[in-house]
Amino acid sequence: MSASSTATSSSTGKYGRAFWERLWRGSGNNFVIFAIVAYVIYGAQPQVGASGDALGAFYASHRTRILISAVFSGLAVLNLMWFAAALRTTLADAGQDGWGAAATAASAVVGGLFLLLIAMSAALAYSIAGSGNQTLTAGLNDLAWACLVLTSFPRAMLIMSGSFGLWRAGLISNRLFGAGVTVVVLGVLGGTTWVSGGFWAPDGVYSRFVWPILGLVWVLVCHRVLARSPATRAGW
């Protein structure tokens, strides 16, 4: 078998280029599904400043659920990385390598911070909360909320790189681009949620629900754009 026929076979076979294109371009939907499942299983995390007894009761009674949620959260992060890789490949194929590189960098930071959040929650449920050290438990719980707020900036950068890159490549309309820019602005505002209580607190409605939902919707929209914009060169 010649080298050219081998290359052709590897790109068109059952597990060739088309298979990997379809798999990684569908990772946006997978990310949203795993993220929602993980959130439902995990439950409502104690708010900032929760008492030691409340924290101990939560992490003790939800130990199994939190550890199961950690698995689904890890799968969500994995699919987010592949979604960003598919986005980067599409942008590079359209000549928008800079925006693609920005998406890769932003997704790496987002993934790292979320893995840190997952690790802290899993460690609290696995052993730390049960050790009786209420000060450490409370500190890590508050740190998790602070990290969630700080993830707003790389999340906004990921949305910005995707929105601007796809717009510059002519793959989305001006209206959809405007919606993406709006989400970017709202995302950056998510990094300012430091009020001591209420809607704009680290554990408030905006940080817990509004901003995450906007991010998930953007991923779903971006997934549809990638699905109808197949690459013209081998990316996988």
Q: What are its keywords?
A:
disordered N terminus; mainly alpha; globular; 236 residues
Topology:
Layout: H1 3-12, H2 17-25, H3 27-42, H4 52-61, H5 63-93, H6 97-128, H7 134-150, H8 152-168, H9 174-189, H10 205-227
Helix pairs in contact: 3-5, 3-10, 4-7, 5-6, 5-8, 6-7, 6-8, 8-9, 8-10, 9-10
Describe the structure.
This protein is an all-alpha fold. It has one domain (20-227). The protein has ten helices and no strands. It has helices at 3-12, 17-25, 27-42, 52-61, 63-93, 97-128, 134-150, 152-168, 174-189, 205-227. α6 runs antiparallel to α8 (152-168) and α8 (152-168) runs antiparallel to α9. Residues 1-10 have low confidence and may be disordered.
Summarize the structure.
It contains 10 helices and no strands. By secondary structure, it is mainly alpha-helical. The protein has one domain.
Radius of gyration: 20 Å
Terminal Cα span:
22 Å
Q: Which H/E pattern describes the elements?
A: HHHHHHHHHH
Q: How would you characterize the largest beta sheet?
A: none
The overall strand count is: 0
Proportion in β-strands: under 5%
